[in-house]
Amino acid sequence: MPLTVLGDSDVNRILHSFTKEDILELQESLADALHWYSTSSDGNDCCSDYQPERTHLKRKDGSTTLFMPASGLTGQGIKVVNIDPVENTDTVNLPSVDNLSLDSASSRSSSEISSLSHRTPSMSTVGSTASKSSTGSGRSSPSLSKIPSGDVPVAVPSTIRGSLTLLDNLGNTIGLINAAELTAFRTALASTLLLKKRQSVHDVTVFGAGKQAYWHIRLALLLRGPEIHHLNIVTRNFDTGRGCIMRLFNPLPEDPSYVNTLGPRGNMKTKIALLTPMHAEYSRLLKEYVRAANVIFCTTPSTTPLFPATFLTNPSGRTKGRYIACVGSYKPHMIEIAPEILQYAVAPHHEHRHLHKHQKEGGA
Predict the structure, then answer these.
(1) Contact at 8 Å (CB) between 195 and 224?
(2) What do you get for the CA distance between the two ends of the chain, in Å?
(3) Bridge partners (DSSP) listed for residue 161
(4) How many CB atoms lie within 10 A of CB 170?
(5) pTM for this structure?
(6) What averages of pLDDT result for each successive group of 10 residues across the chain (364 residues)?
(7) Where are the beta strands (DSSP E) in 72-159?
(8) Which residues in 192-221 are b (16+ Cβ under 10 Å) and which e?
(9) What is the torsion angle, in degrees rounded to the nearest 10, for the CA atoms of residue 338, residue 339, residue 340 and residue 346?
(10) Structural contact between residues 198 and 241, judged by C-beta atoms closer than 8 angstroms
């Protein structure tokens, strides 16, 4: 029996060849699999009763290894991934806006962002020296409106490494697949299942700039790109965020024949803003981006909420509905959104609290 082996470059090339129609077809297959898992009877080994529990192992070097087996009608599989300790500044907690000193941030922001602007002269960067572009909503937001055409995406080392082993129903190994890129893609595929159902996706805010964030952004642009007016990326590290954006437009720089399924970058109308904590007005812009968002993707292993609950639970924050997907946590102590937001979302609906005629509260 033949054995198929796909390395990281092979997986990358395949995933970046998918069009919108391919993504929709894959999502349909994923939705069917989730349906079978949740509702099939005990006589069908696709159901949850036949699926082994995930096992995790804490290693002495601080990393975590996850063993995730699965069983189906026609085969079996197991994914083994190793998650490194948080080492880069992009994945540690974002600062609390309550404790952020705007004075110190302002004095630090001017020089640091200015030097970044010299390195990338054709890029409008966030910061006190950056140019501001007015949006259709009347607010002013820093945007990365132009990406240098000659630059190559910054390579960001993956903190998730592993492999996926596929077996037939007799136990013969039929496939070995590098799981680093596939894991991020699969997670984003599930997160964006409901994105096609949303009436409005004009503003998208993403926390993080790693592979998970990249694939959430890419799939959102593939599925609803013309309708996304503003894409806001909140991350600690400017270079990591810049690399994420650059990769959207040039995901396979080593392959000159590759045609990006997102289309030519000059045709994209989405305004992209990159926000880091060293921005002089970080707290104000963070609140603005969260409040304006129709869609929020959280992709960091944060141990504290990424933004205060009041951004969404007080009257000004409740004037519209939002689709929120949090995928960064993989341990019980990790938390990306405040519990008060979830408590408010599942609260019974009361007419006297109904602030928006098109948006009901509760019912989750």
Answers:
(1) yes
(2) 48
(3) 82
(4) 9
(5) 0.80
(6) 93 96 96 85 72 88 90 88 65 60 37 33 34 39 41 53 93 94 95 91 95 96 95 94 94 92 83 94 95 95 92 88 90 89 77 50 46
(7) 75-83, 132-134, 140-142
(8) bbebeeeeebbbbbbbbbbbbbbbbbbbbb
(9) 130
(10) no
